[in-house]
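ARM repeat N-terminal plant domain-containing protein structure dump, as promised
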Amino acid sequence: MDKIQSDCPYPGCFFCVMKEANPSKRRASVLKFFRELPSQDDDGQVLPISGLWNTAMAHPNDPEFINLGIFECMSALIWKGLKNRRWLAHDQNIYIPYYAAHIIGSYTMNMEEFAERAVRAGVIPPLVELLRGRLTWVEQRVAVRALGHLATYPSTFPAVADHGEVLELAIQLASSSLEIVYSHFYQFVDRRLGYHCDLLTRGMGGVEMESRKAEEWASQLQCWSLQLINCFAFKPEFLHDICKADFLIKLPGMWGGLVNENSPAGVGLLRTICQNKVGRGHVANIPGTVEALCNIARSSDDWQYMAVDCLIWLVQDASTCHKVIDKVAPTLIDLANISTLGDYKRLGDTIVTVLQECMQQSGNSRGTISSQTKAEIDELLRSKQSLKLEKSMPKEDLHIKQAAALVVKLEGNSLFSSGNIAGAAEKYSEALALCPMKSKKERVVLYSNRAQCYLLLQQPLAAISDATRALCLHNPVNRHAKSLWRRAQAYDMLGLAKESLLDAILFINECSQSNDPDLSLKQNKVPDYAERLVKKQMRAAWLFREAALKHGGVHCEGDASDAFGQDADDSEWETASESDAENDARGEADDETEWKNDSHQEDFCEKS
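structure tokens r here:
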């Protein structure tokens, strides 16, 4: 049993060693293998390294190889690749530094004990050299991943931070990663390095798959750089280095894209920065950053709650409140009816409390809050007071208010149908003033209808505000299909491609999941108008777009005529809206069938 039965021609072959039945002999052989591998120049070394890579990915918490010296071995192999270019170019050794850094990152992503062993094994200096770009962007990607894991733990962060250039390198990489990958790989197919292509596709794909994977890896390179920076951002002493204006202004636009939607990316780093008073001061002073956070807070982005956190903290901080309140208040007011979002369990109540305290603190100071913002906050506070009063109001009185609101709403529908869009918007406003605050479904309809009016009146900001209010009132939150579509159009008017794209995709998802046969996608076919908007925004929000425009190349087009066709205009959307109001005037459909034939404007009352 102790003898290895193998026809393998390579003495000391790692795979043969792993077949050893005697545990003690196997450990001794693996230990010897790890010690001797960096000094050997035999062919075929990439095979055991790729095997170790698979093992590390599959069993990152297994301590066996950690105890036998895998970190020391991987560190030495990276150094060998950096210092001995002849060896690196021989056989398939070019793959080895990538696999070695990846193995280090896999074994350190969950266990602080493993991370401590890695630091003692000396992995940080060679990883930093890869981070510098001593080889290529492919090795930078796995190096920043591994360093990000090491920086996560309190016991190993100081060892990373001791290399003072790590933070600056990570900031540079986060800012330039998309351009690097585009210009060094994506742009010129005939110049792509063979081993890059093999690593991207595992030898299973052609040019198209290489390009898709390159976009995914570029996004990971940026997001993992942001993750590393985020570890530094928790330490106040590093905030001044992180919060440089030219970097901070870019953060809201750094997102994982559709290929890496699980990463909070730039908004996640901004949230960490805003947890600190020094960080909030920088964010409040950088033009455009707060406005971008407001856009994210209103959007259907998975990380919406992180932007909301930033806005709330900025308003709660007396040193930044007066700088941001006029920008932030309209967004928070739009979100004041939301219930649960992220970790928040009564977000709307939190927003009302924060704005109310802000008003109280500014009572004795002039010029802190504009008169318009004060009026908007006062209106919000009155609406919340009305909601409290409605709880003790007789049902008959509530029914009277509902009936009065319905009459006014139908008048608005009539005006809309006749082409008097401004008049219809006014009637919807009157109906909202009459409609009980607790009648959420009805208020969703009214806000969404008024958002459509604002769209046709070319008032996208007002449309976004009303659509957002409808989405916050809806249950579940951010899932009212028509409001998603209207807000997608409004974002498109403002050139906010990412926000428009996310809403358009959610709109299609809501249609596909609807139980209403008239709302659901017929034969699983996406409506042409939605497909055109999604395609347009995917080009405009494409991760490589800026790099392509800078360096020249593919996918640089994407104006409105290209996205919607040479003969296309907004007539489809307008026609659908006009027919909505015409049918709605009958007042027969309940709120659950508001989308008959993709054209019915939402009705106000449910059937009794």
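The mean pLDDT is 87.
lmk if u need the other ones
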